[in-house]
Amino acid sequence: MQSITCENLTKSFKGDGVETFALQNIHVTFQQSDFTAMIGPSGSGKSTLLSIIGTLDEPSNGKVLYGGEHSPRKSNAVANFRFEHIGFIFQQYHLLPTLTALENVLSPVMTRKVDYDKTARAKELLDRVGLAEKAGSLPSQLSGGQQQRVAIARALIQEPDWLLADEPTGNLDSETGEMVFQLLQEIHREKGCGVLFVTHDETLAERADQVVRMVDGKIVSE
Ligand code: ADP
Ligand code: MG
């Protein structure tokens, strides 16, 4: 999965007889070797595009190719594909509130048979994001920046080819946002995973290898 290509992607939502086009004829290729920023006003389709690329949603038309291939079609195969290849990070962290930091990092692999020592890897990842001593803390005992670092460690548990980050710094003050941004850039370099980083922050976007700008469901520049 060295590349992800969107070919003529369109997504519309129908409600009350009105059809809203969230994405219109999107053509774009992302390289795993790039840290790509995606920027655009609220409602321009960034989250919709990320969801479709991440196989959480399906396009109305067009296709996404991963290293030139289609994703599987059957839903359990899609779930496995996502599990193996894609890590997600969200603005609201989406940690499970009753689980500790370590258990949150482990949560994607808890119920799966995997051929590695899950706990050792989860601890290494918590250490990598600077939270080794918070392994036993609940999300409510962590700051926003710390919660987002736990979410980053969780996204890495399966060593994904791609990290899809939907405004991961959107809830953080600029200093903490900077730290999370730098962490994601380091992880991109260390682990070689492609990063799609959605942001509102022009100064962060300018530091990416590639910047994709969206307006009204269309890519206006790359
Ligand atoms: P962004 O992430 O850039 O703010 P979104 O991808 O969330 O934009 O939304 C793009 C457009 O699609 C918006 O007009 C939004 O209202 C619409 N939209 C997104 N998700 C849904 C949905 N599940 N049902 C109906 N409309 C949606
Ligand atoms: Mg969004």
UniProtKB/TrEMBL annotation:
GO terms for molecular function: ATP binding; ATP hydrolysis activity; transmembrane transporter activity. The keyword ATP-binding applies. It comes from the Bacteria. This is ABC transporter ATP-binding protein. One of its GO terms (cellular component) is membrane protein complex. Gene3D superfamilies: P-loop containing nucleotide triphosphate hydrolases (3.40.50.300). InterPro entries: AAA+_ATPase, ABC_transporter-like_ATP-bd, ABC_transporter-like_CS, ABC_transpr_LolD-like, MacB-like_ATP-bd, P-loop_NTPase. Pfam families: ABC_tran (PF00005). Keywords: ATP-binding, Nucleotide-binding, Transport. Residues 4-222 form the ABC transporter domain. SMART domains: AAA (SM00382). Belongs to the ABC transporter superfamily. The keyword Iron-sulfur does not apply.
